Amino acid sequence: MSEDQYMGSLYQRFPVTVERGKGAHVWDVDGKEYIDCMGGYGVALVGHQNQRVNDAIKEQIDKIITVHSSLYNKTREEFLKTLIGLAPKGLTQVHLNNSGAEAIEAAIKFARKFTGKKGMVAMKGSYHGKSFGALSLTFNPKYKKAFAPLVEKVSFASYGDIESLRETIDDDTAFVILEPIQGESGIIVAPDGFLQDVRKLCDEKGILLIFDEIQAGLGRTGRLWACDHWNTTPDILCLAKGIAGGVPMGATLVRPDILAAMSKGEHSSTFGGNPISCAAGIAALKSITEDGLIENSEKMGKIFREGLEKLKEKHTMIREIRGKGLMIGVEMKFEVRDILMGLIREGVLMLYSGRNILRILPPLVITEEDITKVLHALDTILTEEEQKRNVQG
């Protein structure tokens, strides 16, 4: 029975029914193998069936599955110590939740309470989630129009333009939020110097700076934190996706004085910090930092982008290659739907952004052999598309 009968049409779906996965590969119900450059929209960060994660979940299940944060739990304590030990300097406290959108919602409340201000400034091209607060900070009108009015007092500055930001903030601005690398809008990398300039401006104006590293964090870009590329630390950092190896989890890292502004009961999460997620999170963080995944992301990302640049020289359909580590965007001159379907035929799963951008977010365990196969498949499909367009032309 098709899932669509029960789930409606909320998702753009592809004709693949995934049965199992291992590393950077998945298999469908018919046994066909795919190289997974989709990675669950970046969630499969440490690879499918990561042994550390699998073992941690199995061990925790035999102890206890749920412990609300009104009680203490040693697995949660260990996860918190592990996460804070890796966090950017000064971010020594954390609220645990269940998703990227929830991490953003917590950040909004913490920043508003701490500053006593209501104004919020996000970036044009931003994507922060689809719950009401996160959606209010998301730029693309197609996600928002049907649900207005959203949260008030949100303004948008041009990404990468410090003067635009300077003109957008005012005396009631509580925070500025941005992605060091914008994901949903097509892997847009912050210009050099921009994050440092934003940090300086926020400090001058007494405004909190929030980084959304839900997609870009935890080694995805070849550094543990995407903001490390620009030696800039936020006041609040939002995480999710691969933080627990595929188990739902979100985290909002904050300075201790910011979290201290919150009173008991003003924010909480029933499932946040549950022992299953925390056990998986400990294992995922250890895998990222101890199994060479950050280094592999940097190395494989370079190989991937070099190969894509060679394809760009061969195929005029490719307009631009951009990204860092294994967070890569390939902007095309035409819509990519047919390209994605062709890649599926060739045994490759890949994402898109908008209508004309291929988005590549494979597990950080991907190998050079896999990348070579992906590049060959993409070369094949682009050649077919060009031939088709030449015939039609």
From TrEMBL:
Keyword flag Amino-acid biosynthesis: yes
Top-level taxonomic group: Archaea
GO terms, biological process: L-arginine biosynthetic process via ornithine; lysine biosynthetic process via aminoadipic acid
Catalytic reaction list: [amino-group carrier protein]-C-terminal-gamma-(L-ornithyl)-L-glutamate + 2-oxoglutarate = [amino-group carrier protein]-C-terminal-gamma-(L-glutamyl-5-semialdehyde)-L-glutamate + L-glutamate; [amino-group carrier protein]-C-terminal-gamma-(L-lysyl)-L-glutamate + 2-oxoglutarate = [amino-group carrier protein]-C-terminal-N-(1-carboxy-5-oxopentan-1-yl)-L-glutamine + L-glutamate
Manner of cofactor binding, per the entry note: Binds 1 pyridoxal phosphate per subunit.
Pathway: Amino-acid biosynthesis; L-lysine biosynthesis via AAA pathway; L-lysine from L-alpha-aminoadipate (Thermus route): step 4/5; Amino-acid biosynthesis; L-arginine biosynthesis
Family annotation (Pfam families): Aminotran_3
Protein's cellular compartments: Cytoplasm
GO molecular function list: identical protein binding; pyridoxal phosphate binding; transaminase activity
A Gene Ontology cellular-component term: cytoplasm
Binding residue positions for pyridoxal 5'-phosphate: G100, A101, D212, E213, I214, Q215, T270
Cofactor: pyridoxal 5'-phosphate
Keywords: Amino-acid biosynthesis, Aminotransferase, Arginine biosynthesis, Cytoplasm, Lysine biosynthesis, Pyridoxal phosphate, Transferase
Modified residues (N6-(pyridoxal phosphate)lysine): K241
Residue numbers binding substrate: S269
Keyword Cell cycle included in the entry's annotation: no
Known EC number: 2.6.1.118, 2.6.1.124
Task performed by this protein: Involved in both the arginine and lysine biosynthetic pathways.
Entry similarity comment: Belongs to the class-III pyridoxal-phosphate-dependent aminotransferase family. LysJ subfamily.
Summary of subunit composition and partner proteins: Homodimer.
Record protein name field: Putative [LysW]-aminoadipate semialdehyde/glutamate semialdehyde transaminase
Source organism (scientific name): Candidatus Nitrosopumilus koreensis AR1
Lineage: Archaea, Nitrososphaerota, Nitrososphaeria, Nitrosopumilales, Nitrosopumilaceae
